[in-house]
Amino acid sequence: MNSQVENSLDVNGVSHSFGSKRVIDQISFAVGIGEFKVLLGPNGAGKSTLFSLITRLYDTKKGSISIKGNSLDKSSYLALRHVGVVFQLPTLDLDLTVRQNLHYHASLHGLKRSDATQRMEIELDRLNMADRIDERVRNLNGGHRRRVEIARALLHSPNLLLLDEPTTGLSPLYVDMFFEKIAEIRKSRGVSIILAEQNATTALEVADRVMVLS
């Protein structure tokens, strides 16, 4: 572990292929502590593949990735405990309540039930969802489900938040509200953010830097 951590994320010379098809080729970049970066690119550019490498859904076969100074290959537990993720496709259990979904996630991170309850109430209140905590996810609209996924991603107090095209399928009204909430979370929590988008017009207003993946 690096005792002098300067970045939330370091990606160095990472490449990835599916068979003979090279999807990512020698990518290197860093995300500073508290920094908000937008990752732009069309479908097939490799945005989701890159996120899968950062979250270790795929093994890094060429290059290296470190999170808060911890090597993803050598110290995956220490690295991934700092990461919160909102995936492109919904991953909530529709038949469980908001509370049940969040408690399940908290248990995977080893949080005590009392601590998890306190944290979920704080995060849901921040996202104006506290009054929906005992409602089944199936009864929520798309925008509200995204808010629950953000609350879930923040439960374990991550230093790095990954957002993989989180506004897909949302109305323009909910897109604007989504980015307002993300900006508020960044300001209050000081969390580093990487947002993958195809069209990041709104995101550009709150991001520090833009990376283009082609």
| DSSP strand tally | 9
**Spatial order of the strands forming the largest sheet:** 6-7-8-3-9
Category from helices, strands and their pairing:
alpha/beta
Rg of Cα set: 17 Å
Low-confidence stretches: none
Strand content: 25-35%
Average per-residue pLDDT, rounded, comes to: 88
Describe the structure concisely.
With 214 residues, this protein is of the alpha/beta class. It has helices spanning 47-54, 76-80, 98-108, 113-126, 142-154, 172-189; strands spanning 7-18, 21-32, 36-40, 62-67, 70-71, 83-86, 160-164, 192-197, 209-212.
Walk me through this protein's architecture:
The protein has 214 residues and is of the alpha/beta class. Helices cover 32% and strands 26% of the residues. It has helices at 47-54, 76-80, 98-108, 113-126, 142-154, 172-189; strands spanning 7-18, 21-32, 36-40, 62-67, 70-71, 83-86, 160-164, 192-197, 209-212. Helix 3 packs across helix 4 (113-126). The chain is globular. The chain starts with 6 loop residues before the first strand and ends with a strand. The mean pLDDT is 88.
